[in-house]
């Protein structure tokens, strides 16, 4: 367990996963073992969304890649690169076309191994700021490598009147529940606020959109995404790709409590 601390803020990270973020003793992160989801955060890379209807195949400029839901990055282990009292950096390295064991096989997938036809380095850093937590993702890869990126944190809920506020709308928790597994899209948005017993603001750079998902009233996933995958059929998922420019692409999320 990696622990970061600054004033009244405490961050807990286990094998690269954010398992705790508290300020003034208030825990904001969904806890493993609680109803809703077995994880507390993960990344969706190099694709977002399901692929089962496309026979688990995604089109790339270098041919067809075998990908399961939300990509292969989550099947790889993070390595701790460095740590201070307020910042920790983790990394995953991938060599082109290396087979990665698919944890969904055989119960939920026909594909035992996943692969991607490009080399990449994926870095995830956590840094406690004076009033908030910054999570930054750096993708280093071959110039022109296609990718999507989604960050998938889950937040613990306390109130019976939870809502999500954006610049032009107010979304109830029931609206998110009603959408179900597809997740509710919040497009062209880089800032929103989770309204619970207190407020938690989430500001992003590089993503451009959010998805909101939950199936229980005690947890909500607020997911910054570069592309909403349900906007197209699974066979056309490649239409949502970004590309690595100048060998590096950077995305960030700032979580700021407003208690």
TrEMBL record:
The keyword Calcium applies. Keywords: Calcium. InterPro entries: Aldose_1/G6P_1-epimerase, Gal_mutarotase_sf_dom, GH-type_carb-bd. One of its GO terms (molecular function) is isomerase activity. Its cofactor is Ca(2+). Signal peptide: none annotated. GO terms for biological process: carbohydrate metabolic process. The keyword Protein biosynthesis does not apply. Monomer. This is Aldose 1-epimerase. It comes from Arenibacter echinorum.
């Amino acid at each position: 367990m990696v622990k970061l601390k600054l004033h009244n803020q405490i961050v807990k990270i286990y094998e690269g996963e954010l398992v705790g973020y508290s300020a003034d003793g208030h825990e904001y992160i969904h806890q493993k073992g609680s109803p809703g989801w077995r994880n507390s955060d993960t990344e969706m890379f190099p694709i977002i969304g399901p692929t089962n209807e496309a026979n688990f195949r995604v089109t790339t400029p270098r041919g067809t890649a075998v990908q399961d839901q939300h990509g292969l990055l989550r099947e790889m282990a993070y390595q701790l690169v460095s740590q201070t009292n307020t910042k920790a950096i983790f990394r995953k390295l991938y060599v082109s076309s290396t087979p990665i064991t698919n944890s969904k096989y055989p119960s939920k997938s026909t594909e035992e191994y996943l692969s991607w036809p490009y080399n990449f380095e994926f870095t995830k850093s956590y840094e406690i700021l004076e009033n908030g937590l910054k999570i930054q993702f750096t993708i280093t890869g071959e110039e022109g490598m296609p990718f999507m990126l989604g960050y998938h944190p889950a937040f613990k809920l306390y109130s019976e009147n939870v809502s999500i506020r954006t610049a032009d709308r107010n979304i109830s928790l029931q609206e998110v529940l009603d959408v179900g597994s597809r997740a509710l899209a919040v497009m062209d948005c880089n800032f929103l606020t989770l309204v619970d017993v207190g407020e938690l603001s989430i500001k992003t750079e590089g993503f451009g959109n959010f998805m909101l998902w939950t199936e229980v009233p005690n947890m909500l996933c607020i997911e910054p995404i570069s592309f909403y995958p349900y906007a197209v059929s699974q066979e056309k998922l490649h239409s949502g790709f970004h590309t690595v420019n100048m060998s590096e692409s950077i995305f960030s999320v700032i979580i700021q409590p407003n208690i």
